[in-house]
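Replying to the earlier thread about multi-chain prediction with a worked example.

Input:
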Amino acid sequence: SQTIHQWPATLVQPVGSPLSLECTVEGTSNPNLYWYRQAAGRGLQLLFYSVGIGQISSEVPQNLSASRPQDRQFILSSKKLLLSDSGFYLCAWSLPVGTAQRAFFGQGTRLTVV
Amino acid sequence: AQKVTQAQTEISVVEKEDVTLDCVYETRDTTYYLFWYKQPPSGELVFLIRRNSFDEQNEISGRYSWNFQKSTSSFNFTITASQVVDSAVYFCALTRGTGRRALTFGSGTRLQVQP
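Result:
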């Protein structure tokens, strides 16, 4: 069966510090991978999605970047965090294009930038 | 462009009441998929249902039911005889049937079920 791991669960970082959130998927090959952010009391906003290794699409201009160094690994990064980067970050995967499937979500990372 | 609107920001009901969560969507695609997810306090998103644009049959799963109406671009979710464990934020979402498959979410409805 497929599983998705996302860590850390919570993170408190000072403004200006770097960020690295990691997400890995097990039990499937060539998944579509996604990073979403949920600001406090708001809906989920798509940040990045990837259909393959090294293929990243950015949805909104921001202080963040994403990378996919391996088929089932998706990393969200920042060189210098801003206060506005605080939020709940969710990684998700779905089966590749050509099959209309639900997205499976990780347990999320609650990031507080202080 | 796709858009999902959940006009109800927060709903509070007393246990055993029925409650309907509204969802209205916009898309230019003829093939698309609609979803409902539940987000309990732990934060993880729990999948509830997926419906494709060609299937307008209503669905019932236990105390949950969904009413999909293409004519009004709505995909409403009803919980019958609500329970305290139903307290959560509920998200409606939309994805294209072809091409880019990322979900477009509504802003969510927070449901509080009081004992």
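The mean pLDDT of chain A is 90.

Feel free to reuse this layout for your own posts.
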